[in-house]
Design a protein that fits this description.
The protein has 10 helices and 10 strands. With 268 residues, it is an alpha/beta fold. The strands form 2 sheets. Strands 6-7-8-3-9-10 form a 6-stranded mixed β-sheet, with helices on both faces. A 4-stranded antiparallel β-sheet has the order 2-1-4-5, with no helix packed on it. The longest helix is centred in the last third of the chain and has 18 residues. It starts with a strand and ends in an 8-residue tail after the last helix.
Length: 268
């Protein structure tokens, strides 16, 4: 089978500031692919390019055999209907109940009867363990529960592609484990392809089939989680082992402290 998403020779810049350079990535159907790297490495931008919110200066972004940049507005909306998105920190509608948050994409994109919509929303909430919280507002549930509601909303339309932007950010260890297990189970149950943007090495490596590491807009390493654990690449080693110094330096580059203080070489 052809991959669901392909990125070939992609170049992207914000104005005069280059961000992504020469990206080649493949996202096979039915797999969870983690995209990892430090802050500002371009991970979330990759998701926006796939979703068509941004367009690259050159290269190709292909989703289900179609070049995203070449789609008409109506075709782009049709493609997005087959995508689910879990935003960083959930991004629930605070004035809507848990039920209505999950029902929102169904009301927007389908003509289901109220009884069918009701049953489908409860099924999605049951899948994340929260059918009994349907009547509550986001402010009345924990951060981990809110993330699960956002996950139920992301899968409401049974998408073929699910994108996760830092799904573990701000969660306690129990909630992180629960969320990671749900991502894996729901991906397998739906037969979806999942793209997981995350800083969290432990949880991501537990559920991902393949990993791409980005640094300064380029892919510096890729492989299975086991291959990444055993990698001798300095950047991967620093990231996986949370080392303070390495290819990503602890000190911002520039003059030494001695030079800034006006000390002579002898005084150093």
């Amino acid at each position: 089978m052809s991959p669901l998403v392909e990125i070939r020779g992609l170049q992207f810049a914000y104005g005069d500031r280059p961000l992504l350079s020469g990206l080649d990535m493949v996202f096979p159907r039915g797999q969870i692919i983690a995209v990892m790297g430090g802050s500002g490495s371009g991970k979330t931008t990759v998701l926006r390019l796939i979703g068509g919110q941004l367009r690259a200066q050159s290269g190709n972004v292909i989703v289900d055999g179609k070049e995203v940049a070449a789609l008409s507005l109506s075709d782009l909306y049709a493609m997005r209907r087959k995508m689910g998105m879990l935003f960083q920190h959930g991004a629930l509608f605070t004035d809507l109940t848990v039920f209505e948050n999950v029902a929102f994409p169904l009301r927007e994109h389908t003509n289901l009867s109220e009884s069918m919509l009701h049953d489908l929303v409860l099924l999605k909430l049951h899948a994340v363990g929260l059918s009994n919280a349907a009547h509550l507002k986001p402010a009345e549930i924990s951060g981990g529960m809110a993330r699960r509601v956002a996950l139920a909303r992301a899968i409401a339309l049974d998408p073929q592609l699910i994108m996760y932007d830092e799904p573990f950010a701000g969660l306690d260890p129990i909630s992180m484990g629960v969320t990671a297990n749900l991502i894996r189970k729901l991906n397998d149950a739906l037969g979806s392809t999942s793209i997981l943007v995350s800083h969290d090495v432990h949880e991501s490596f537990l559920i991902a089939d393949y990993v791409y590491f980005l640094s300064q807009g380029r892919i510096v390493a890729h492989g299975t989680p086991d291959q990444m654990r055993e990698s001798s690449d300095p950047y991967v080693t620093q990231f996986v082992n949370a080392q303070a110094d390495g290819p990503v330096p602890f000190h911002y580059p520039g003059r030494s402290l001695a030079e800034q203080l006006g000390l002579s070489e002898h005084a150093k």
